[in-house]
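Model it.
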Amino acid sequence: MQRYPIPAAAVTVESVVKRSRFVCDIAPVASRDEAQAFIESIRAREPDARHHCWAYIAGHPVSSIERASSDAGEPQGTAGKPMLNVLQHKGIGEIAVVVSRYFGGIKLGAGGLVRAYSTAVQQGVDVLVLAERVPTLAGSIRFPFALESGLRRLLEQMAVTIVDADYQSDVVLTIVLPCGREQALIDAVINHSHGTAMVSFP
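Modeled.
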């Protein structure tokens, strides 16, 4: 899986369209449960808003199946789906957005609602600070005790994280590394240990 952008932190942006106030909140979410918890937190924070429309992609921006949206009482197709479309177009993963609408007394019509909700999300994304999600893979390395200090230095140089160390007849390190680096790690470890170390992945 390739790297992809994610929100680095939550943001809030407000806009007004024909007296209706739109409060757009965006936050990083890594799962459907986190997305739902974020949506509920905004409902609790903005209890007087007439609508709390939302959309999220709780994973990879393209391949994740954890994505959903809701019009939250607005006419069907005028809020949630347009909001989700903006997120998909931007290619940002692990993201949730809630737009809380305070009705200003002037109806916007279906086209006006689509534009208002899409624009609210766009404005939120425009000020969003992004980080990068690097997909990782877990594995293990088994090797003789005498090689430990050298192999630890090698793993540090290759940006491999040691999660756990188990000392039995040999040393067994549980590791996490960026996806796509598996063969490079295997080659480096075998070369460093002259074939006495074994790298394995689930």
